[in-house]
Specification:
Elements (H helix, E strand, L loop, with lengths): L24 H8 L5 H17 L7 E4 L4 H13 L4 E6 L8 H12 L3 E5 L3 H15 L3 H19 L3 E4 L3 H4 L48 H6 L3 E4 L9 H9 L10 H4 L13 H12 L3 H11 L5 H11 L5 H11 L3 H11 L5 E5 L2 E4 L8
Parallel strand pairs: 1-2, 1-4, 2-3, 4-5
Antiparallel strand pairs: 6-7
């Protein structure tokens, strides 16, 4: 395990590759922004907007996938008020047992601001069964839910004949998952290759009880389907100088976004502006930490270090205090939802703890072998 020389990105992030100087892709991209010709980039953006408006077959110029959170709220306002487009918002909603009232209120807040929104609700029973299967097969309950989240937007875009989709950050440039890099920094048509989606493979979802026609919302459109629909996914964050967790959070909170009020050591989030629509992503971030040595807090500190908001040393201190933290209440509520005990939860997690990075002292008790900012 090695840390980037500038930020606290680790080389354990799937799909990343440091350069010969030990610098991560996201830091190199951030440095490159200093020499960007923003006028030229805006010209590229204008052409994409023209593409959306010229292919308006339904009354909508484009689609934006939303959760009501900080990123999607800011994108929606920008597309409507700055780009002058008429967007259709698409929200993949969680079942009643999973979605928070905060999440409901934040989507309602967007609708109150005058946006049209379609909500997609997969069958709750199948949703729960697939979460359980993903948890026991991969120690990743979100493996199926992420498939539905990412698939719902392009599927609806094809159905409504809206070829332009705005997406948020380019994970290749802004996080370092090089698998999703397309033909240019704004091209999002390689999203299917991101680590979370596993290339769109859904065969593991199928069983005697669950057939292909039960999981249509989980199937990412094929490359041929997207080509036939002339579908174009564009990373909107590529065109912003100030895309970040903090900037997006500030913008959206000023427009009615409701944020979290839990303690940072309960959610591994010092500002409470992520995963607003449900609570269990918090424990998935904890599991990610035990697999790869980094969790939610790494995204915060890495951005703030690059933007000069904190020093690397300050980031190390925050990382040590909060990364991988999760309230036992969320572990209990998740375990109850998929029908297991907390002991069974930890027994499964224990199987996936990276013993190269952690010493096991018992279920739920893991001591890092690495030193934050240094590595192994």
């Amino acid at each position: 395990m090695v840390y980037c020389k500038r930020c606290l990105q680790t080389n354990t992030r799937p799909g990343t590759k440091f350069d010969e100087f030990g610098i991560c892709p996201a830091c190199n991209y951030h440095e490159s922004l200093k020499s960007v010709d923003w006028d030229e980039r805006m010209e590229e953006l204008k052409k994409i907007v023209e593409f959306g408006k010229a292919n308006n077959q339904s009354g909508y110029d484009c689609i934006i996938g939303v959760s009501g959170g900080k990123d999607s709220t800011r994108q929606a306002f920008y597309v409507k008020e700055v780009l002058g487009m008429n967007p259709l918002l698409v929200c993949l909603s969680y079942p009643p047992q999973q979605i928070t009232q905060r999440g409901v209120d934040n989507v309602s807040n967007m609708i109150r601001h005058g946006f049209d929104c379609i909500t997609v609700n997969p069958s709750p029973g199948i949703w729960r069964d697939l979460m359980r299967k993903g948890f026991f097969q991969f120690t990743n309950f979100a493996k199926s839910t992420e498939l539905a989240l990412f698939s719902s937007v392009p599927r609806l875009a094809i159905a409504y004949q809206i070829p332009l989709i705005w997406w948020g950050e380019n994970a290749a440039l802004q996080l370092g998952d090089l698998n999703v890099m397309g033909k240019s920094g704004s091209d999002g048509n390689n999203l299917r290759k991101m680590n979370t989606l596993g290339g769109g493979d859904v065969t593991w979802l199928l069983s005697e009880e669950i057939k292909k026609n039960d999981i249509l919302q989980y199937i990412y459109p094929s490359e041929k389907e997207m080509e036939d629909a002339d579908l174009r996914i564009t990373f909107l964050g590529y065109f912003w100088k100030d895309w970040s967790l903090v900037d997006n959070g500030n913008f959206s909170a000023l427009r009615g976004l409701e944020i979290r009020n839990e303690k940072p050591w309960e959610i591994g989030d010092p500002l409470g502006i992520t995963s607003l629509d449900e609570d269990w992503v918090t424990l998935n971030q904890m599991i990610k930490y035990l697999k790869y040595g980094f969790g939610r807090i790494a995204d915060y500190v890495n951005e703030d270090i690059r933007n000069g908001r904190m020093t690397r040393e300050e980031g190390i201190a925050l990382n040590k205090r909060f990364d991988g933290k999760c309230s036992p209440a969320y572990i209990k509520s998740f375990s109850d939802y998929i029908g297991i005990t907390v002991d069974e939860f930890w027994a499964q997690v224990d199987k996936s703890v990276n013993t190269d990075l952690f010493i096991k002292e018992g279920p739920g008790k893991y001591i890092p072998k690495f030193e934050v900012g240094v590595g192994l």
